Amino acid sequence: MNRKIRLTVNGRARAVEVPTSRTLLDCLRNDLGLTGSKEGCGVGVCGACTVLLDGKMISSCIALAVSADGHEVTTVEGLAGDERLHPVQQAFIDAGGFQCGICTPGQVVAAKALLDAIPSPTDAEIREWMLGNLCRCTGYYKIIESIRAAAQRSRA
Amino acid sequence: MNAFEYAAPRTLDEALAVLGEHGDEARVIAGGTALVTMMRQRLLSPGYLVSLREISGLDRIEAANGDVGIGALVTHREVETSPLVQERIPVLADTFRRVASVRIRNMATVGGALAHADPNQDPPVTLIALGARVEIRGAGGRRELPVEEFFHDYYESALEPGEVVTGVVVPRLPAASGAAYVKFLPRTADDYATVAVAATVSLEPDGERCRAARIALGSVGVTPIRALAAEGLLVGQQLGAELLLAAGEAITGAVDPLNDHRGSAAYKKEMAAVMVGRALTQAWDAARASSRTRP
After folding, report:
1. B115-143 pLDDT, tens digit each
2. Pairing state of beta strands B5-7 and B48-51?
3. Chain A hits for B100, Cβ within 8 Å
4. Is there a smaller number of Cβ atoms within 10 Å at the N or the C end of chain B?
5. Residue B76, phi then psi, degrees to nearest 5
6. Is the ipTM of this complex over 0.85?
7. CB neighbours of A74 closer than 8 A, spacing ≥ 6?
8. Min Cα separation A65/chain B (Å)
9. In chain B, which residues fall in CATH 3.30.465.10?
10. Residues of A with CB below 8 A from B36's CB?
11. Which residue of B has its CA nearest to A68?
């Protein structure tokens, strides 16, 4: 019950044969070697597996790889370009937006999706958007600060 | 997850044919948030998945004769952010916004939320209060059901084998009406409700007395529940503390919640009465405002 699927991952066309039961997360991590996205809860709650599918953030742990056939996927590995970090990544470093780091790829991808949708979010908008990305170190204040800083930097 | 065959047909007719061929073994998948989660937990292990994702025409939100039609593949996030829904049926946009997180709302579909038939979900409650109808297609043709008649039991709906939900039709509320959705969430903002209530109230020309009302509740039984007895008490009445108390008592008799980690059955029963009072107050206030602004 394998299937050949074609994805555009971080701008690059990829073809891969996967069992139909493979999640998009496992396909990214195990078939394509992109281990930035993490599995936390495995049921779509924690946000560690957040990726963009056609520009919209989804939980890749409860998405089937076959359902992404023909679509575009962006992972945390696809955010930086030309040796330059994405403004969200740089802001997370500058403002201390991570502690142990396990939730960080998901936080960064979710924050990028937020700034794509709302370039200058209010704090309330940041909190509402990010409520599905859990940080068990509880570093939420610094995460919000990082996103605020990234929004400012993107405007400058 | 178990091994399964997967088909992603491009037309509804093809999808229905594949479903017909594989019978009970096949399940329909759209956003996958419910189905894949249940498969990962080994609660379900279908041998065949038929994806609706590649079928065009099921992803539209359209105005038709005063109604709003929402296709089965429209995501929760698309309903929440639709200018048409926000303008015509703001309570529906509010309700979809209360589901889980933005990330899940980008995946979960309107049709899936109905077909999943989980009594803890938000959208069915408001759809029942609004008098919405679900559109169903099967090999035998097309049929429509009021959303309140669609749910039979925990995870069980009126869908016959081989049928799929293709959309939902939401009628416009009459003039001088208001609606509200209240969700009691003692744990986290992205949780299922402990108790959820949607209410609509339509007023007489005096702008005070109730002409008609609908009340629906979620998370207090094996299906979403419409509270007909409580609705009956409201007709002809003005909003007041005694009326809300009487409606609350009628609600307590109509609900049958489970003990779980979101609260004991007794607590949910009491909270159902409280939340119905809040929903009715909000809906009544909105109806009064609406009756004042119309000539």
Report:
1. 999 999 999 999 999 999 999 999 989 99
2. parallel
3. 44, 132
4. C
5. -55, -40
6. yes
7. A9, A10, A51, A52, A55, A109
8. 11
9. 61-170
10. 23, 62-64
11. B53
